[in-house]
Design a protein that fits this description.
alpha+beta; single chain; 157 residues; five-stranded antiparallel β-sheet
Amino acid sequence: MVPEAEVRDVLDELQRLRARVPLLSGALAASTDGLVLAHDTPGVEAEGVAALTAAALGVSIRMTDATGRGGFRELLVRGGTGYIATYAAGSSAVLTLLAEDRINVGRLHLEGRRAGARIGELVDAALERADRPAPASRAVPPRPTGAPGRALPQRPT
């Protein structure tokens, strides 16, 4: 999955986002299959939200495909007391934001899209580094022939 250093960077981004947008009540980054990467969601079960986000993402992707609207970008759900907004975050993550009903939806989208792009860059770069093969070590010179573990005879001087 994503290394701890990048997870910390993602959490920092979520916290900066919540500081910039006071009417956000929670922010969560998850893999597209519903695993929590990082969250700042006081009073909300992050694992449950991540799982539901993955389910909603699956339906959203099918809808965009079926209607010819291109790849998934974002999803906005409005409830009686607020919003749930989900944004694509690179190729393998999503950002889900919980917002109060009084939020400026345009500002929510602006900040959510920006944060999703930054989180996507962090996660995709970390996954790319993890998938890259380890650099080849320097070749060890061949061992001189002779009995293993015994010193070679010295030439007289």
